[in-house]
UniProtKB/TrEMBL annotation:
The keyword Heme does not apply. InterPro entries: CheY-like_superfamily (IPR011006), LytR-like (IPR046947), LytTR_DNA-bd_dom (IPR007492), Sig_transdc_resp-reg_receiver (IPR001789). Keywords: Phosphoprotein. It comes from the Bacteria. This is Two component transcriptional regulator, LytTR family. Pfam families: LytTR, Response_reg. Residues 10-121 form the Response regulatory domain. The lineage of its organism: Bacteria, Pseudomonadati, Bacteroidota, Flavobacteriia, Flavobacteriales.
Length: 233
């Protein structure tokens, strides 16, 4: 075979039992879409791995030295998807609110590992995939297992922060993992305008405007230099 299939998903293993870590590593190496970027035995080292690498999936043992698995997870901002590995049944419920992709009971059979990876890939595809333009008045955005309906009239502005967007609406702010350019493609330019690399606004919601600032809901949003010539507000 001359060409290597490119690996898509970066993983780390957080596991303090060397044999369990080795088994996971061998399972990961069999899947060409998974790329192991680091292994570690405690939460402190895991935090530094998450800072260094773009991690899509973390295999997390709950019985770690010093900081326990779930406590560690609660502290992570924008955590990757997590597959929990544990020898104890009683933790599944606690992890519900933490958006765990799956639980693997040790010792882990390879077939069960494959099922968990299938779930993870489905969630990744759903999260990246996302946008469905329905009628003219709303869009659906997939988030994990849910589809969230957003009424276009309710949107004040959309803000981009690293790989996430925040959609500020009348009732609440929705956060999705998606580039701002992707949502810009499906929004009607009669209703919405890109004013900055990090902002799209609803034209109808403008309260005050000047050459450099547009105010919406009392918040001053900057107008980027490159967007000024395109703005016909």
């Amino acid at each position: 075979m001359t060409h290597q299939i490119s690996k898509k998903y970066n993983c780390i293993i957080v596991e303090d039992e060397p044999i369990a870590a080795e088994i996971l590593e061998s399972f990961i190496s069999r899947d060409q879409e998974l790329n192991l970027v680091g292994k570690c035995a405690d939460a402190i080292y895991a935090s530094s791995l998450l800072n260094i690498h773009e991690v899509d999936l973390m295999f997390l043992d709950l019985h770690l030295p010093v900081v326990k698995g779930f406590d560690f997870l609660r502290k992570i901002k924008n955590p990757p998807f997590v597959i929990v590995t544990t020898a104890y049944h009683q933790y599944a419920v606690e992890g519900y609110e933490l958006d765990i992709a799956d639980y693997l009971m040790k010792p882990i059979p390879y077939e069960r590992f494959q099922t968990a990876i299938g779930k993870f890939k489905h969630l990744m595809e759903a999260e990246d995939a996302l946008l469905e333009v329905s009628e003219r008045d709303h869009i659906f955005i997939n988030s994990g297992k849910k589809q969230i309906k957003i009424i276009l009239q309710d949107i004040f502005y959309i803000e981009s922060l690293r790989e996430y967007i925040h959609i500020h609406t009348k009732a609440e702010t929705f956060t999705f993992k998606m580039p701002i350019s992707k949502i810009e493609e499906v929004l009607n330019p009669k209703m919405f305008a890109r004013i900055h690399k990090s902002y799209i606004i609803s034209k109808a919601k403008i309260e005050v405007k000047s050459a450099n600032i547009i105010q919406i809901r009392g918040k001053n949003l900057p107008v980027g230099r490159t967007y000024k010539p395109l703005l016909e507000l």
